Amino acid sequence: MVNNPYIEQVKNHYKILTNLEEIYSIKWKWNSFFANKNPIILEIWTGLWNFFSKNVNQNLDKNYIWMEIRYKRCFMTAQKTLWKVKNNDNSCDNTKLEKYNNNFVVIKDYAEKINNIFDENEINETLIFFPDPWARKKWLKKRLLQKQFLDDLYARTKINWKLIFKTDHLGYFLHVLYEVEKTKWDILFKTFDYEKQWLYESDAITEFEQIFRWQDIKVCYLELIKK
Ligand SMILES: C[S@@+](CC[C@H](N)C(=O)[O-])C[C@H]1O[C@@H](n2cnc3c(N)ncnc32)[C@H](O)[C@@H]1O
User: Fold this and answer.
1) Which residue among 47, 64, 118, 185 is the one 20 to 30 A from 161 at the CA level?
2) pLDDT tens digits along 19-71
3) What are all long-range contacts of 49-54, with beta carbons under 8 Å and residues at least 24 apart?
4) Which domains, from first to last, does the chain contain?
């Protein structure tokens, strides 16, 4: 018997979707769900909330969808994101708060289910940062970024939009580069040490990346585009 206090909290949270029938019924209607035509940014294997909540609050002209499977992380992320809204907004202008609240949602489901959740050409940008590398040889098939998943994501991405991937695991990075070769994605940018590049912003990193920075571990970065 699982005794997880977050299960009920997640099920009752208005910013978290857990009912699979409901989630899958939104397929092809995400812009209607957000009630605007703004770009849809998908963050999967998200983990914790700092990076996500910051993005949500700083980019009101984008819609954010967050996918994670752990109850506590779903709940904390939704709460922290709403909390940040209230605390950053000194004016407490209700119209503004409503606008903030409308630009994100948390989905509690597996990343592998994207075909059930999104239709073709529905996502603008996908962020996948530090997924488990499943480093042992017998686990390699468990890696999320395989040809099939990359193909599925490609089909679901709008033309001229991107997939951004980061990992500290060189083996996983090389594996992804190999898999990408078999797909229609174009490589826009790749580096084995992106801290050296202009695109690194120290205040826009995830919790896992913070740990790697402290340990001085190099981070590999890949930006793919659908042309
Ligand atoms: C390594 S952590 C995430 C790191 C985070 N992106 C960061 O950079 O701080 C991996 C997260 O992915 C979640 N996860 C694992 N398998 C998943 C799956 N199949 N679908 C969605 N999330 C998953 C785990 O619960 C965990 O919170």
Assistant:
1) 47
2) 999 999 999 999 999 999 999 999 998 777 788 888 888 888 999 999 999 99
3) 49/73, 49/76, 49/77, 49/80, 49/81, 50/80, 50/206, 50/207, 51/129, 51/204, 51/205, 51/206, 51/207, 52/77, 52/81, 52/104, 53/77, 53/80, 53/81, 53/84, 54/84, 54/204
4) 6-225 (3.40.50.150)
